[in-house]
Structures are given as C-alpha cells and as structure tokens.
Amino acid sequence: MSRSVLSRKEKERVIRRLLIQAPPGEFVNAFDDLCLLIRDEKLMHHQGECAGHQHCQKYSVPLCIDGNPVLLSHHNVVGDYRFFDYQSKLSFKFDLLQNQLKDIQSHGIIRNETEYLRNVVLCALKLYVNDHYPTGNCNVLRKSVKNKEFLIACIEDHSYETRDCWNGLWKSKWIFQINPFLTQVTGRIFVQAHFFRAVNLHIEISKDLKESLEVVNQAQLALNFARLVEEQENIFQAAVLEELQELSNEALRKILRRDLPVTRTLIDWQRILSDLNLVMYPKLGYVIYSRSVLCNWII
Question: GO CC: one term (predicted)?
C-alpha cells in the first residue's frame, strides 16, 4: 500500500494549521508533540514563530513590561512580527516558545487629548478588573482610522492547569470612537475551555454587543464605560452558567437513560446526578463561575 508524501509547502500548511488550533495555554505542548512527528528542526522553528505570533493575537497572551501588564493583540501589531506597548512606549518581538521578549526598541507616541483619555479609561478599567478577576489583566490601546480616533479596551484572565488536564480562558474586547456627545461601544466576550481527562472536550462561547454611551467629560466617560463593561459581562456570565447547568442536566439524564439490572434496591438518582456533576464539571468555572473568586466550575 503506497503512502503519499507531502510536499514542503503542504507540510508547512498542515503544521501552521495544527499549531494555530492549539487551545489557550497549550501552544508549546502542541509544538513539542509536532516536533516528535516532523523531525525537521528548521521547519518547525520557522512555522512555530509564525503560528506563535498569530496565537498571541488570537488569545490576548499577557506579558509584563516594567511592572505593567501588556496584552498582545492584532491592535498593537506594528509589522515584522513586532508588538507595541503604549505604557512603556516600547516595540518588541515575543518568542512564545521561549516565553521571551526580543529586539526591544523605543517607539514614540503622539501625546494629545486622546492619549490622556486613554490613561483615564485604563485607570477606571483596572479598578473593575481588580474587583472581578483574581489574576486578570487589561490594556487600553488607541488607534486612528481615517482621521478618526478609537480606543480599544482588552481584558483577559485565564487558568492553565495542565497537570489537572484542563485549561480555561476569559477575554473581552471593547471599541469606541472619541465623539463629542454620544459614542457607540462595540464589544465581544469570549470564553474557551479545554478538558482532556478521559475525554477531549472543548467549549467555546462568545457574544457580540453594541451599546451607546453618553459622553459628558473624560472622567465620566471612563466611569460609565467601566460600568457598562461590568454590567454586560455580569449578564453574559449569568446566562452562560444557566445554559451550562441545563446542558449538564440534560446530558447526564441521557447517559443514565439505559437498561439497568433489577436489584430490588432503591436508587438515589439525585445523589448520582450530583456525583456525576462533580466529576464531569469541576473546572471551567475558574473562568466563568465567579469572576471575583474567578473560576472553579465549568467543565
């Protein structure tokens, strides 16, 4: 039986696709496993660098520069695999495989009213994140598109417990334009969990939002924005927990709906359901259940 041999371009495409599909917190594990299969160090290093750059943007990988958290995203990419941090005013490359900053350079910014507002919004957002996430990170970026100024606020928190066979991520992104009286906030909340003990279970949940925000002054805008984020994320959290509870009850009942031997003993179905819930759904709540005590329930 003949086996088709992949060309180099096909190998690159397959490797990159597999690495990009790696769940949050598992990129290095996926890379190491592929290295054992491919046995081409040069090819893997190049594809690992390209895919790692995309992975950082997709999952808002957090870094710490000069004591300040930085979230990597496509909004602070400045080309040539480089990212830019508004707080430290540095641009850099990030090697995800070695978890290391490289080629750090200074990068100036224009100081104007929008930059001042960015700092005010960041302060308000930090207060919210500190109250609701145990190890959360946030960034506020600014971007100019066709002479229009935008602020982009990013939030991230995660728990990667590879030894316990689960990983979970919560992240959100909020964008609004700097307008005089009223602005529209566009948001997206995203949750992903991976449970791989005995089964390989992936959960991805997201929601897109659009809300209006009144602009009075900079301080009031920052406070109203933080309240808006808190309200929408709380609503999303409650809805996800309710849906997961309904899903778990329905799935467990289907599992138990089968022929059982006659034992002439009373079966405590409620206790069995409770025990199975504890076994099957112990973890992802680290990302959803209580973001103030963030996270100990979902999968």
Answer: F-actin capping protein complex
Mean pLDDT (whole number) for 23-29: 91
Q: Where are the domains of the chain?
A: 6-104, 111-253
**pLDDT at position 293, please?**
39
CATH number of 6-104: 3.30.1140.60
- Convert the pLDDT of each residue in 160-204 to its tens digit: 887 778 889 999 999 999 888 899 999 999 999 888 877 788 889
Reported pTM:
0.81
Residue 295 — very low, low, confident or very high, per pLDDT cuts 50/70/90?
Answer: very low
Spatial CB neighbours of 217, under 8 Å, sequence gap ≥ 6: none
Q: How many CB atoms lie within 10 A of CB 10?
A: 11
User: CATH for 111-253?
Assistant: 3.90.1150.210
Per the structure block, which two tokens stand in for 295? 């996270």
* Cα 208 from Cα 187, distance rounded (Å): 6
Q: Give the integer Cα–Cα distance in Å for 133 and 163.
A: 22
Can you list the alpha helix ranges (DSSP code H) found in the chain? Answer: 8-20, 27-38, 41-59, 113-132, 218-256, 269-280
Q: Region 106-124: what's the mean pLDDT?
A: 86
Buried b (16+ CB within 10 A) or exposed e, 216-251: eebeebbbbbbebbbebbeebbeebbeebeeebeee
Structure tokens at 100: 């290391």
Cβ atoms 99, 52 nearer than 8 A: no
